[in-house]
Input
Amino acid sequence: MGAKTYLLAALAAMGWTGMGAAQAPKPGALETYRDWAIGCDNRNRCEAVSLLPDGGAWPDNPLMVGVVREAGPDAPTEVWVSREAKGGGAVSFHIDGRKVATAQSRDGDATVRGPQAAALAIAMARGRQMEVRSGTRLLGRPSLAGSGAALRYMDARQARAGTSTALVATGPIGPLAVRPAPAAPVVKRALIPGGPAPVTLWREELTALGKFTGCTDEMRDAQPPELHRLSKNEVLVLVPCGSGAYNFTTVPVIATGIAGRRAFHFADFDYKPGWSEEEAKPMLVNVGWIAEKSELSSFAKGRGIGDCGGSETYVWDGARFRLTDATSMGECRGAWHWIRTWSARVTE
Output
């Protein structure tokens, strides 16, 4: 399966498990307008990111630009630049030969805020050529093709079209007509108990686990499954189930019972992890587990340089893993910054 084919399928994955469809998270979809991608999360925070021109060669010193804005009438615009070549100092943004904004960079990244940022975003939407400079040195020329359409989409998604707060689709209506951001979903995490590490799986349990997950062959040459305590009676088992050059796949299983005779079932999720191919079997990629946060993460690259893919972060609530953050980039065209499509607030 090609990288882009996989991404279109994985990023379109919908809510999954026994929860009702109305309750399941629904991360935002991405749109592409020529050389720009844009997406919004469940709180209508929107971000547009520049791409390499379709079919264009990877530059010696890659650089990308993004425009981000929260929802709500008073939300400011921000324009950021990120470049692979790290460095500091002032950077300037030029549209059609005119310097529009400046910002201080650190480790290759800089952000323009305030009125300068709004003026820059508007100039980008209207302009033909953009240059990012450090003094007289040219750092890059991110394409502006499609930027106006992307920012018009942002105005529409945030219900700014026709108002004075819009970047492109401006109108006479005042800012009070703009809807506030929707409330963030709340996920209450279960605290992970301390104590000794779970007892290592017995040989018979490993055999049973391989059959249950369908990962027997992949387990044979991999590291043993990781075991992490979830509660007094439950253990998270991360079962290796294949690897490639830059992606390592894992099946998350919950084990219950006493060592040597543990029973297994697939971990339950309120949103299907993006790598999963079988409806009943979740599949995570480049998995991470942080017990102090009750947090399980998956990070799948569409290709090795990391300019496309998707990620999900979940929190254990005592019964299932609940989605708290998701990002994606469906175009493999030089954008190593992925767009946030879902966010939730975690409480204890």
Summary: The mean pLDDT is 92. Helices lie at 3-10, 115-126, 147-157, 203-213, 216-220. The CA atoms of residues 165 and 175 lie 6 Å apart.
